# Entry
Amino acid sequence: MEIPAIEQRKYMETSAIWAVGLCFLLAGHGFEADAYHHGSRNLQSNTTEQPYRTAYHFQPPKNWMNDPNGPMYYNGVYHLFYQYNPYAAVWGNMTWGHSISYDLVNWVHLEYALNPTDPFDINGCFSGSATILPGGEPVILYTGLDSQNRQVQNLAVPKNISDSLLREWIKSPHNPLMTPTNGIDGNNFRDPTTAWQGPDKVWRVLVGSLINGRGEALLYRSRDFVNWKKSQIPLHSSDKTGMWECPDFYPVSISSRNGVDTSVQNADTKHVLKASFKENDHYIIGKYVPETDDYFIETDFLDVGSDFRYDYGNFYASKTFFDAAKKRRILWAWILESDTSSADIEKGWSGLQSIPRSVLLDQTGRRLIQWPIKEIEQLRENQVTLLNKELKGGTVIEVHGTITASQADVEVSFDFPHLNEAEVLDPSWIDPQLLCGQKNASVKGGIGPFGLLVLASKDLAEQTAIFFRIFATHNEKYIVLMCSDQSRSSLRQDVKKTSYGAFVDVDPLHEKISLRSLIDHSIVESFGGEGRSCITARVYPELAINKEAHLYVFNNGTRSVKISRLDAWSMGKAEIVPNNRRRKSHFN
# Structure
């Protein structure tokens, strides 16, 4: 089934309106933009010569990008800052890139927001966060690597608060505001969070650290946002994790589907603490008491059975912000390359940002659910639908139609006539990633593996499998395993082909198992169980590129499963507009 022509016209008209409005806005602010001329030249769309460059994920025109920094919504504009190397597709020369959007899909690149030019950041402007002050003024706290190679925390404010594009930032004359003293290691003291204000009108902020082998969220307080004093006790710490990078701390509503502003603390909220370590973004949930700054957690980092992560794949250094316009909390993350550094240099770029995700507390109150923002659906076109299709064991069905399988959005739900042939789960199988590696898509099971083969070649020599298995426990319950299997993703031998895994908190006796995968040339973001478990992968096929990529649904178990519904769409290209008027380099 195809999308009706009127819906396609709506999308084309919306894109045209956005483009024209954006050009007028940029002209009004004195910008020149390489866009909508010469055949709508778009750096995001050159996939013939650059088969791994994405069409609708955020990335700069060239060079290295890593952590998202200081995302915010200000005066009708979304801002994304990010760690950027202006000179090469490898890490170094850390600068804050800056881009703006009106819908979190289409973007304009602006001048760099922060350059390493002062003694307190001369060796790099590292990660940080934005805070909106009570009067509506945005400010940035960021880590600088100073002239002594110490990590210190600095403040920057907009040069012109009436400029909704926030093109220029001024560093505070009081910098650095926080320095590594009293036993803090100057090599492990970075990434300040968004600040929040307590009922006493005192500001709080967390800084990641490693002290005596313990990962810590150091707590600082200030009445004026300039003079900060460290608390004697960290908000939380752990001896299992190593250094905590890019910490994040924010409230989530217990009873509402809306997001919550960072400074909200009441009986209807719990608080999420996230830390990046061991190549993953881990989180815990607890009750925060603002009067005493106590944080009472429900489970701790790396606890067996409750090792909660935003994403169980390639997903790191994430940052959330509260979108006041739509009352939601949005999550960004750096998706690093799994290719070689030499390949990054050859193609001229490295690093992506994830599709922005909304974040909510699930109905149990124990964990988070994530889902791609609604705005991304404006890129959908050429819909194909399958309904009530039986998938017998050993079946592989191609999803035919007018979709572009290298650039697609797929949603599928599965139902199960019988569960009595589910494999029995060995109690020692507690590591889902290890289990997915042992039981990949080619290993037959009882109920599963079943799911999608994406970025697959016609002969299936290349394929990335996102699939489920259902296991039975000894107490007559069922466990659902979700895997992203990259073992056959490319004929190339020089790329990482990690398999990822997660258990999904669904009960197949009473609910369908759903999967959504966003496919964009070299990235696959997958959401299992309506966002209860997420896995992101980078893949680099040689055969399954552009129009040679195919999409399949498969079942390699012995028992049949039923496709309740499958919807697949081609995804259009996001408009990523480069700004011609970049400032001259401050680097030597």
